[in-house]
Design a protein that fits this description.
41% of the residues lie in helices and 23% in strands. The protein is α+β, with helices and mostly antiparallel strands and 396 residues long.
Length: 396
């Protein structure tokens, strides 16, 4: 009996010692914490216009794709502004066309004044010759000379009016005229404003919160929806400062969530460590220069990214509690990243619909208001298409 008790005691002692040894060795090459949570970007969808909400196409929990309409506004005011801008563009094209016609009229007046001047000059020369022979009176000769000077002044006036008309009309095509360009830019800007009445999702994700209802009157910049991309989340692990000694970027991590338990073990790697503790960025930082100061171990946020696509099969809501275990045996990586960031987020392609169709609208308005009798209408139409595409070069 005593031998059995001694054997049992020996086995228990060896088990405890083995556990302590393994735990000690493991603690030298790993760090772990249960102060970790799922984090991700929250995309806020807002309006750029003051208007009334007429339609809402998504609610909390719904999935929306990038570019999918989620809210539509009334759009009455921008539509009215666009109608006025289109009318102003048409009027401007007609006015510029009239300026070019005026140049042609002034050219004809210059030719007429030139002919009148040459006729008066020849007449004055003949009167001078006849007066030298005494065949005409001095008074008749003087009248001829005055008529020549009068015709010369009329010619100079016509030439100056031609130069003024040429400056106003310009040497470029009608579509490239500064006044037409300004009116066209106004049309394109208001056309984009009209299209902004349809608000789309900038990214694909789930609607986390809906902050708008049909019939609401909203202001520009007011949040309407909040989107979360559950496939682009990461882990925020708050480690004690005493655990950071052997931490390096790129070290492998095992992640277990409270949602799925140990049935699902995620794998990841250390992406980066915070540049300060939580208290350093607090709204009211701690003031330790006091007589009753107590030392508290601080925690530093460590960012961990998931490896592979396991997160797609087992998505985790933001804020989910996690347990992480980092293998610190690999010491090849740096403590902090020293390479410039290369990843970026760009949603400009989603908002191309703002300007879609503006080029065709401007081209149609300009072509519809070009003079039908103008000799270079075909050239102006080609220039209009090039101008709408941003490729027009001024005539030399």
């Amino acid at each position: 009996m005593r031998r059995l008790s001694a054997l049992t005691l020996l086995i228990v002692s060896l088990s405890v010692i083995s556990y302590l040894v393994v735990h000690y060795l493991d603690s030298r090459t790993t760090v772990s914490t249960d102060n970790a949570y799922i984090a991700g970007s929250i995309t806020t969808v807002s309006s750029q216009l003051d208007d009334m909400v007429m339609w809402v196409g998504a609610d909390a929990g719904d999935f929306v794709a990038a570019g999918q309409p989620v809210v539509r506004l009334d759009g009455g005011t921008p539509q009215n502004k666009l109608a006025r801008a289109k009318s102003e563009l048409a009027t401007t094209v007609q006015e510029v066309a009239a300026l070019k016609q005026r140049v042609q009229r002034q050219q004809a007046e210059v030719r007429q004044a030139q002919a009148a001047y040459e006729l008066a000059r020849n007449e004055a020369q003949r009167r001078n010759k006849l007066a030298a022979r005494g065949m005409v009176s001095k008074e008749e000769r003087d009248i001829a000379v005055l008529r020549q000077r009068e015709a010369q002044a009329a010619l100079e006036t016509a030439q100056q009016m031609l130069a003024e008309a040429t400056i106003k009309a310009g040497h470029m095509a009608i579509a490239k005229h500064p006044r037409v360009e300004g009116a066209a830019a106004l049309v394109r800007g208001i056309f984009a404003e009209v299209n902004k009445g349809t608000i789309v999702a900038p990214v694909s994700g789930h609607v986390a919160k809906s902050l708008v209802s049909v019939g609401d009157t909203i202001k520009a910049g007011q949040p309407l929806l909040q989107l979360v991309q559950l496939d682009q989340t990461w882990v925020e692990a708050n480690l004690k400062e005493t655990q950071l000694h052997n931490l390096r970027l790129g070290q492998p991590v095992e992640i277990i969530s409270d949602l799925y338990g140990e049935d699902v073990v995620y794998h990841g790697k250390v992406l980066g460590t915070g540049t300060g503790t939580g208290s350093a960025f607090a709204l009211l930082p701690a003031q330790n220069a006091t007589g009753n100061w107590l030392k508290i171990v601080q925690r530093v946020p460590v960012r961990i990214v998931f490896s592979g696509e396991q997160i797609l099969g087992h998505p985790l809501p933001l804020g989910t509690s996690l347990r992480v275990k980092i293998d610190t045996s690999v010491q090849d990586g740096p403590r902090l990243s020293t390479t410039p960031a290369t990843h970026s987020s760009d949603v400009s392609a989603v908002y191309n619909y703002w300007r879609a169709g503006a080029r065709e609208m401007v081209e149609t308005i300009i072509n519809d208001n070009l003079p039908t009798a103008q000799g270079d209408k075909r050239a102006d139409q080609v220039a209009t298409k090039q101008f709408a595409a941003g490729q027009l070069v001024a005539k030399k």
